[in-house]
Structures are given as C-alpha cells and as structure tokens.
Amino acid sequence: SIQEIMVMREMSKPRPTYFLNRGAYDDRGDQVFPATPTVLSSFPNDAPRNRLGLARWLTAADHPLAARVIVNRYWQLMIGEGLVRTPEDFGSQGKTPTHPKLLDWLTRDFVDNGWDLKRLLKQVAMSATYQQSSSASRERIADDPENRLLARAFSHRMSAEMLRDNALAASGLL
C-alpha cells in the first residue's frame, strides 16, 4: 500500500486568529493578522502573506538575520565558539558579537555568493584563526582566558555523533 504523508497547505480562507489575554485560550483579545514585528525591516507589500512570503522575507538581501545566524552557527561548529556567544538567543537579550565586523563581512560574503555553504566553510577553514595552534602560554591564557581575541584555537572534542560519522567515513562505510 502507498504510505500517506501529511502535506501542509494554506487554507483558502484563513480562520481568524486572536491575541489571547494572559495566554488563556478562552479569553480572546484583539484579532491579529500576518505581519512582522515593526522593529525589523518591513514585509514586502508584493509578497504573499504566508510561509512562502515569510521565507522570501527572511532570505532577502536587506534582511541579514537568517544569514548571520547561519554564519555564526558554522563558525561555532568549526572554531568551537560562535562570534555571538549566545547562539540560542541571537536577539536583543543575547550577547553582542565579539567581532562584529568579521560577522558582518562573512555574512555579506555568504549572501553575495548565493548562500554557498561550501564556500563559507572554506573561508573559515582557510582563515588564520582556524589554522592556529590551541596551545598557548600561561601569560596569554591569563590575559584572555575566554579567548575573546581569538589568539589561539579552541581545544574542543567532537561530539559522539561526529566521531561515529568520521570513523565510518574514514573506513569507507559511510
């Protein structure tokens, strides 16, 4: 038999959505409509007010948030710490980037080159920051214990899943 899967579709006539006072489902407030927060760049007028429009808005050239998060996550994966030290909270309550100009440059380069992840990873791998040693003198560690200056490589271990995948790849089984 053919296995069925659920497919999400936009409703022909969307049902009304309401602000719930104090989160109570039975205490409706004002009706709300699809829109973006006013503190962010405005949603394009010609874009559809659905998930496709939201995806186009998130990846627009004048809206760098999604690209900055991606660049920060891959930097963290390769270097050990992200340029923004709170990757789970990239908003106004998170920490500011340790190197904002580097994050901006990597993000602009990433977007300008068609969101090419292979190129981004190569950029990071070819950087002097990635290629430096993790050993450092006691004075250097005392001066910068959290390595905010990126003066040495982080000595971090691979996760169990990464170690398994690496072993399988090296043996030709992956």
Structure characterization notes:
The mean pLDDT is 86. The protein has a two-stranded antiparallel ribbon. The longest helix has 15 residues, at 65-79. 39% of the residues lie in helices and 5% in strands. A hairpin with a 7-residue loop joins strand 1 (17-20) and strand 2 (28-32). It is extended. With 174 residues, the chain is mainly alpha-helical. The chain has seven helices and two strands.
Low-confidence stretches: none
- Report the span from N to C terminus: 31 Å
What is the percentage of strand-forming residues? Answer: 5-15%
**Gyration radius, to the nearest Å?**
22 Å
Shape: extended
> Could you report the average pLDDT, rounded to the nearest whole number?
86
Within the largest sheet, what's the order of strands?
1-2
Number of helices: 7
Task: Return the structural class.
Answer: mainly alpha
What level of helicity do the residues show?
25-40%
Number of strands: 2
Compressed to H and E, one letter per element, the order equals: EEHHHHHHH
| Assembly type | single chain
**Most strands sheet:** 2 strands, antiparallel
Give a brief outline of the structure.
This protein is 39% helix and 5% strand. With 174 residues, it is mainly alpha-helical.
